[in-house]
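Lab notebook, bench 4. Still working through the backlog of constructs that have no structural model yet. Next entry is a single chain of 236 residues. Request: give me the structure tokens for it.
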Amino acid sequence: MYIISQFNDSFKVPPNKLEHIIVSIIDSINTKYQNKMIEGKGIGVTLYDIVSMTTPTIAIGTGDVYYEVVFNFIIFSPFQGELIEGRVLRSLPSGIQVTLSFTDSVFIDQCYFPANSDFDEDEQLWYWNYDGTKLPLYINSTIRFKVHHVIMKKQESVKPVVVPQTTLMSNNLKQQKDEKGEKPNEEKKDIKKEETKTDEQTQQDFNQEENEEEKLPLRIYGRINESGLGLTTWWS
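Model written out:
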């Protein structure tokens, strides 16, 4: 159900967050990888730990600091036949949607409900008619289901950031320039124009990636038509 995978990615720390570098990097990692499809393996849950960080590289002009970080991330990777518990999120005529707190991409089609299940149009709820008793599938109730199949869209996976090298200078290079009396702000105008263009292109790439991540990359289809499945209160 859960696996730990190691990744190598670059993250930016703006000047106003340099006093809390680790916190900023942790937030950046979780923002990028949490609830996202990761390399076709599953949905990112949360950061497990940071393994290492390289010497920082400073962006000319902006003062942004880039770190290349090696880290381990927890991934939710469901498999067919796995038993999972979640909460009923929505009830629809075609079935129910289930949330696992970190993803709402679980759907149980009505054809995989127990026999004699009916949808009440007035209450917008599903009921299982068991031996003359109507057992409702209430919203927010805990439900146990079996994974029937999983659909992953690998093309929408999170991709590591490629830091634009033309806008960066390492600490060693900065020290050498300072010793020569050169400062980042004294770069030639044509170089600044090239850097600005690179930043704009990078921002466009980020925006395009964010638009892709808005699509649902993982679909989990479950079933509750076996003994022990359905609302946990049915079997308690």
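Notes after review: The helical segments are 21-33, 171-179, 189-213. The radius of gyration is 25 Å. Flag for follow-up if needed.
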